[in-house]
């Protein structure tokens, strides 16, 4: 309805004191990796020693036989470089001044900080799923779980020479089937080490759900899906009590998670014991977290959860030629797999 100026001239509009994020997407795998980050304290590179072949010396021996004393080299080193991603936090001095006092609805600096931090998390999700490791691009599960089809080298080593650095990669996979998932799972399972997360898109997650036996799907519908947060599976009681978590299905006991940041048609088989985020707390910068949970951000979106290691902030500074203050949010480190043969992916799924 249209009000007269007699009313509008003496009545202000009501502004909801909250910023609602209509952009960011959820990424449970990114949340898990960032919250369980390992330290990268010093060193210009992150070196991982690998054994790439068995020795051929030694073996069975008879009575008083001469023993083989030939020494063979079976180890080498993968090497990863640190990467950085950033977002600027910029507020003009006059805007900060006018944002003070009774007329302020939301603190301008706080809103800008949170907004840019959420945007930085989306950059990190892109790095996780599509990074190539080339130049300023981060390494990722994309180049870790490859068999040399797209990435001939990993950690500076040629996969054609060091063949044990090949992950499982199925191109043009076509229709999703349980048999294809079983093949991928078997390919990246070594001994008792198997994937602890299977991550895919919403569409493929629903497709997998449709492949389950009707009685199993009926059980999920009646009792609710099991839930997993960044630290593992949630007890049923806590899940029912409303603790934040992601709905999961299971394949061979491994949670199958839908991640909105994964490119279309992909499914990843990830062993987080051998793939994770190595964070760098930069000397001279503050290690920060989000000031508070912003209820305007959907639950499960990275940026609404504690993520501190490798998350740095350079204090606000005033440029000499600008009436403003500028700070920078910086994520530093890299996504690294110590054993890429335990990682796999299928692409071109439908």
What does the model show?
The protein is of the alpha+beta class and 350 residues long. It has nine helices and 18 strands. The strands form four sheets. The chain has an eight-stranded mixed β-sheet. Strands 1, 4, 14, 15, 16 and 17 form a six-stranded mixed β-sheet that branches. It is flat.
Q: What descriptors fit this protein?
A:
350 residues, 8-stranded mixed beta sheet, single chain, 18 strands, alpha+beta, 9 helices, 6-stranded mixed beta sheet, 25% strand
Question: Brief overview, please?
Answer:
The chain is 23% helix and 25% strand.
The count of DSSP E runs of length 2 or more, i.e. the number of strands, is 18
The rounded distance between the terminal residues' Cα atoms is 48 Å
Mean pLDDT, to the nearest integer, reads: 88
The total of helices stands at 9
Indicate the low-confidence ranges by residue numbers. 237-243
Strand content: 15-25%
The SS-based structural class is: alpha+beta
Q: What is the N-to-C order of secondary-structure elements (H for helix, E for strand)?
A: HHEEEEHHHEEEHEHHEEHEEEEEEEE
Largest sheet: 8 strands, mixed
What fraction, in percent, of the residue positions are helical?
10-25%
Name the strands of the widest sheet in spatial order. 7-18-13-8-12-11-9-10
Shape category: flat
Rg over CA atoms, rounded to whole Å, is 25 Å
